Amino acid sequence: DTGVSQDPRHKITKRGQNVTFRCDPISEHNRLYWYRQTLGQGPEFLTYFQNEAQLEKSRLLSDRFSAERPKGSFSTLEIQRTEQGDSAMYLCASSLDGALGKKLFFGSGTQLSVL
Amino acid sequence: SQELEQSPQSLIVQEGKNLTINCTSSKTLYGLYWYKQKYGEGLIFLMMLQKGGEEKSHEKITAKLDEKKQQSSLHITASQPSHAGIYLCVGGSQGNLIFGKGTKLSVKP
After folding, report:
1. Which parts of chain B are beta strand (E)?
2. 3-class secondary-structure state, position A86
3. What is the pLDDT of residues A18-56, one digit of tens each?
């Protein structure tokens, strides 16, 4: 069990560029969550997947944001035409729904800076 | 939509004092988790509560979930500087899990 890994750890981009983040959950976990956290605030829910199905999206997830989990394993979060307001820490978490309850395991996050 | 309200937003206590942080849900929770976050570090799992009336303790931290599963408290006994950080409750009533806005705890030596 290597835990939840996120890549990259840091991303600096210019306004208007597209960025993509990757999350590799714990291998047997069927649920995967994306959160966004700005300085001084708690993480805000963006979306979550049950296997490959995206079951819920927050209103925070504008049409510039898209998330996928094509094979029910790793997930990607893409932001198109980035804006300075997108600068935040993007956190991924996974859990095993069922026998072990819903304990969330978090990755270290991807820190996005939009210049 | 469901919300988790945490109180207080921030707390400064003298080392050795006890403190309590509260988390209130607008809907009955499936389960509730407490995490701690320190600047530059990841989220550290503290407790998971699933049953109404459940109480769990680990070292000097005790978490409770009320019978209705809408309110939880986190109590720290004899606080230490190592307890400083942001405490977050996380919970949900359906598939998603949402965070409270966090309680920033500072412990003065």
Report:
1. 4-7, 10-14, 19-25, 31-37, 43-49, 55-58, 61-65, 71-76, 85-92, 98-99, 103-108
2. helix
3. 999 999 999 989 999 999 998 877 888 899 899 999 988
Selecting from A35, A42, A105 the residue whose C-beta is nearest the C-beta of B102 gives: A42
Q: Which residues in chain A have Cβ-Cβ distances shorter than 8 Å to B34?
A: none
Question: Which residue reads 């570090």 in tokens?
Answer: B41
d(CA B71, CA B27): 10
Q: Which residue is it, tokens 């403190």?
A: B19
Nearest-by-Cβ selection for A48 from B48, B86, B95: B95
Contacts of B90 in chain A (CB under 8 A): 104
Q: What is the pLDDT of residues A58-86, one digit of tens each?
A: 877 889 999 999 988 999 999 999 999 99
* CB atoms B48 and A41 under 8 Å: no
For the stretch B45-77, pLDDT in tens is 898 998 899 999 989 999 999 989 899 999 999
